[in-house]
Structure formats: C-alpha cells, structure tokens
Design brief:
By secondary structure, the protein is an alpha+beta fold. It folds into two domains: 2-87, Phosphorylase Kinase, domain 1 (2-Layer Sandwich), CATH 3.30.200.20; 92-134 and 184-346, Transferase(Phosphotransferase) domain 1 (Transferase(Phosphotransferase), domain 1, Orthogonal Bundle). Helices cover 35% and strands 12% of the residues. A hairpin with a 5-residue loop joins strand 1 (26-28) and strand 2 (34-37). The protein starts with a helix and ends in a 25-residue tail after the last helix.
C-alpha cells in the first residue's frame, strides 16, 4: 500500500510539472526520499516537513557546470510532500557498477570525482541559502563550532543504556581538540552526503553528481566524513539488492587514490583530529536519533553508540586509515578492511 501511495505522489508530481503522468515509472532505492525513474526523468518526493528539495532546487542551477548536476525540470508540492523532477542522465550509480569494474576503471572514476570535487569546493553558495539540520552537529554560527555537539552529548548522556563514562570522555576529547576545526564559518560549498550512491557512471565517465539536499557552506574536508565511512562500510550505503556484492575490500585503495588526485583536501593542519571531530559529530547525532534499546554489547557493531566507543578507544575506521589502530582482541570479528600504511601519511 505504501508503494502505491508513493507511486501516486510521483505521478502527481509529473502531472504538476506538465509531464506525462502515465509514463512507466520504476522505484529506485533511496534512504531519505521516494524516488522514481522514467526513461527521461527522475522524480524525488520528500515526505519530511523540511523542504530540503526546495533548497536543492534553488541551489542546483547556480552550481558550476563542472559539478555535473542534472538539469532541473520542475519543482513544486507542499510541506511534507514537496517534489523535484530532474533530467535523467546516462549511466548507473557508481556503487552499483563498482563490483564489476576493473582497477583501471575504478582509478579513473576516482580521478574524475576529484576534479568534480575541486570545482564544488571552490563554489560559494548564496548567503540566503536556508540552514538545515546537518548530518554533523557542528555550526558556523555558534560561539564554538562544537557547541551543538556538546549540547547533544549532554542529552545523550541521559539516555538509557548509554555509557555515561563514554560520554564524559567524548566530551573531554571534543573540548581538547575542537580548536583544530576553527574557523568553521568557511563560505565554500560541501556536498554533505558524498558517497558512490550519489555518483553516476556510464562506463567511461562520471555523468552526474546527485542529491544536494544536504549541501551547505563548510570546510571542504567536511565531505571526508561520510566519504571515508562509506569506503570503510560501503554495504551500509547501498540498496539491498546488491548489498551482498558490495565488499569493503573493494574500496581499500579509494581513499589513497582520492588523496593522490586531490591532495589539498587532506592538507589541513591536524587533519586526523579534524576528521575525528566530524566523525563524532555525526555519530552523536545518530545516537540521539537511534538511542540504544538495550545494552550496546547486544547491538550491532554499527550502532552509533558502538561506533562512538570505537573512536574513543582508537579502533575506528579513521584509526585504521591513519595506520594507528589500537589492537583489541574483540576486533578480530570485525570485517573492516586492512588499509595498510599507504594512506597513513594523508591523515
């Protein structure tokens, strides 16, 4: 029934856009929106009362052509059901293509992505771009960028099944390192949800960088947070029908390739500490969204409480990337890849 309602909303969007509402539509995977594909168009419907697609519709026409955002056809709808129709570009999502790609093809895709990101990270969005509830609890408008994160830690510490000592130690780590991300009120744009599900690949070239609803002004290396966690746990970011084909070991070289092609993205002073704060700010937000229903040791290792603990104990994907992972016998059952030492110098 829910799919029927979603399809009806997509067809209504096509009708309001002046397009053929009877065109065949195929449901596409998406975490945040209802997405349908026709031969020529992509229809996205946002069921949350935040109008993120309205922001994207206003921002996208201003983006540099080199970013390769698909042409917008129409935007409309209402609060709780706004929609965006864009032209469908050739190719398929890169993460779906990745398992069958050769090493040379993968290397070329990362090279092209680095070029696109350079153009994106030089773009200054309009000042009137509406603020959003960002994936990382950091703000350019508070006294310290980490003030929202510190407030969230206070709330997280009061949740059932949350380790109060872990929260205290996290707070101490944030306070002792927070200066490394200042100044945070950087005017250039970040994508905000950078992973291969939002990249189109036609076999030879990247044909589109998609889904800018989380885009905002921020330091360019803020995009490394979701990108690096995607490389460590790619199967958590893809559609269920090919999750079993998506292996972390196929992404082991990707961070090093990006660092080679876009070295300035990794050249901020104290880059490891910066990305660690971004990572904590992401995981604490998710901890509030998905509080542990029972003791954390009974939950998946991917639960935000357990991710946060691994960061505090020196066993996160960032520590693996930096080559300074603290060994713990419990890590033997983890399926994170071994990055070796090739990428360590970048962080």
């Amino acid at each position: 029934m829910s799919d029927s309602f979603a399809l009806a909303r997509a067809r209504r969007a096509l009708d309001e856009a002046g397009l053929d509402m009877r065109a065949p539509l195929t449901r596409a995977s998406s975490v945040t929106n209802e997405v349908f594909l026709s031969d020529d168009f992509v229809v996205r419907v946002n069921r949350h009362p935040n109008q993120r697609l309205r922001r994207e519709a206003a921002l996208a026409p201003l983006l540099p052509a080199e970013v390769r955002y698909p042409p917008i056809v129409a935007y409309g709808g209402q609060l709780g059901a706004d929609w965006l129709v864009v032209r469908r570009m050739p190719g398929n999502v890169l993460s779906r293509c990745w398992p069958a790609m050769t090493p040379d093809e993968r290397r070329e895709a990362v090279r092209q992505l680095a070029s696109i990101l350079r153009h994106l990270h030089r773009f200054v969005p309009p000042e009137e771009l509406v603020e959003i509830d960002t994936p990382q609890l950091l703000s350019p408008t508070t006294f310290r960028a980490v003030d929202p994160l510190l407030d969230a830690l206070d709330r997280a510490g009061a949740l059932p099944h949350v380790d109060a000592r872990l929260i205290r130690e996290t707070r101490e780590l944030v306070l002792s390192t927070c200066s490394v991300i200042e100044p945070f009120d950087v005017p250039t744009l970040v994508h905000g949800d950078l992973h291969f599900e939002n990249v189109l690949w036609d076999g030879y070239a990247i044909t589109g960088l998609l889904d800018f609803e989380w885009a905002r002004a921020g330091p360019p290396d803020l995009d490394l947070d979701i990108f690096l966690r995607f490389c460590a746990y790619p199967y958590l970011h893809v559609a269920e029908d090919y999750e079993h084909l998506t292996r972390a070991e196929d992404y082991v070289e990707v961070p090093a390739w990006l660092a080679e092609e876009y070295p300035e993205l990794f050249d901020f002073p104290n880059e490891f500490e910066r990305t660690q704060i971004y990572c904590i700010a992401y995981d604490v937000r998710e901890l509030l969204l998905f509080p542990p229903p029972r003791p954390p040791h009974e939950l998946s290792k991917h639960h935000p409480h357990n991710r946060l603990e691994r960061t505090l104990r020196g066993r996160s994907h960032l520590h693996r990337l930096a080559g300074n992972m603290t060994f713990d016998p419990m890590d033997l059952h983890f399926d994170e890849p071994d990055y070796g030492s090739g990428f360590a110098s970048s962080l």
